[in-house]
Design brief:
The protein is built from 9 helices and 11 strands. The model has no long low-confidence stretch (mean pLDDT about 95). Helix 1 packs across helix 5, helix 4 crosses helix 6 and helix 6 runs parallel beside helix 9. By secondary structure, it is of the alpha/beta class. The chain has a domain of about 170 residues: NAD(P)-binding Rossmann-like Domain (Rossmann fold), CATH 3.40.50. Bound molecules: NADP nicotinamide-adenine-dinucleotide phosphate.
Length: about 290
């Protein structure tokens, strides 16, 4: 039985990755800094390793007897006092150094789609720097470059609940967001994939106007959209860059950039955003 180490298991994508590796017959070791966060995944995990990628001493021996290392470690919404370079670059590099001590057969890493178009962003720079190290490591590797996740599209549902959706510019930039479950299949299939770089998005290519419309329709509400001029976005980002640190402006800058460029990746998967919104609304109704 092949053994996998999953770093990032506590995240949105990580939970689906854990289930998919188990479903495909792997022995699973998870890395997390907080065991409690993995309680609901216990049935899919054979061994829980407690450590923090940014602290090299805490992850010593983590790759022992492991065949595949998978990492979706990265800052999405800043919670700690650490930078992208600390986590996305150095944290993953620390993991790579541990892998080098063992005879692993493959390293699979999750980056972001369209890094070339966003190379001026701090978060992307850290990811690109790590992928360079991975490419030069001599390991067999796959780097998955996914489009936006369904989890991030929930912001549109929140706007619709509040009664107004906001888009940048004309709202006609397109994106094909992907469900974590579909993306997990792509990532786990990468174990036997020859392709080194895998670009992937969900099955539906949608403009941001269309996503707002789907959110309102899911709630049975009349669509109301406001358009924010691109110059205002640029002004907000410039001001944030001047007045705040990367920990504050980094995630905002990333999301605002994704919303204002074409983000159309090769399509994959069977989960549709409309169904996901319906599911989320019903889930909430059941819990209320
Ligand atoms: N969300 C998107 O739309 C999107 C799109 C494309 C690519 N991506 C990339 O895909 C990856 C996974 O995304 P996701 O949505 O699953 O992210 P997520 O839910 O925020 O999970 C990120 C993972 O990284 C870990 N992590 C973050 N900061 C850490 C730190 N200081 N020390 C140790 N671990 C840390 C988290 O652990 P804790 O639970 O302990 O914090 C978690 O396991 C990220 O690199 C992201 O940039 C995301």
């Amino acid at each position: 039985m092949k053994k996998v180490l999953i770093a990032g298991a506590t995240g949105y994508l990580g939970q689906y990755i854990v289930k998919e590796f188990k479903k495909q017959g792997f022995w699973v070791r998870s890395l997390s800094r907080n065991a409690a966060k993995l309680e609901n995944l216990s049935e899919y995990i054979d061994e829980k390793f407690i450590g923090e990628v940014t602290n090299t001493n805490s992850i010593l021996g983590i790759c022992k007897d492991i065949d595949i290392v998978f990492s979706s470690i990265g800052i999405t919404k800043q919670r700690d006092d650490l930078t992208y370079m600390d986590v996305d670059y150095q944290g993953n590099k620390n993991l790579l150094e541990e892998a080098k001590k063992e005879g692993i057969s493959k390293f699979i890493y999750v980056s972001v789609f369209n890094t070339e178009k966003m190379k001026n962003l701090k978060g992307i720079q850290a990811k690109v720097r790590f992928t360079k190290e991975l490419k030069e490591s001599g390991f067999n590797y796959s780097i998955v470059y996914p489009n936006g996740f369904f989890s991030d599209m929930l912001d549109y549902l929140q706007m619709a609940k509040k009664g107004r959706g906001y888009v940048f510019g004309s709202g006609n930039y397109r994106i094909n967001p992907i469900h974590g479950k579909d993306l997990a299949e792509v990532c786990v299939n990468a174990v036997s994939e020859e392709e080194k770089g895998i670009n992937v998005g969900g099955p539906d290519i949608l403009t941001h106007n269309e996503i707002v419309a789907i959110a309102f329709e899911s709630l049975n509400k009349k669509i109301k959209i406001s358009r924010i001029p691109i110059w205002l976005k640029n002004f907000i980002l410039m001001t944030l860059r001047l007045l705040t640190s990367v920990k504050t402006y980094g995630p905002i800058e990333f999301f605002m950039t994704v919303l204002t460029i074409e983000m159309v990746a090769p399509t994959y998967g069977k989960y549709h955003l409309r169904d996901f919104f319906f599911y989320k609304i019903n889930e909430r109704n059941k819990n209320e």
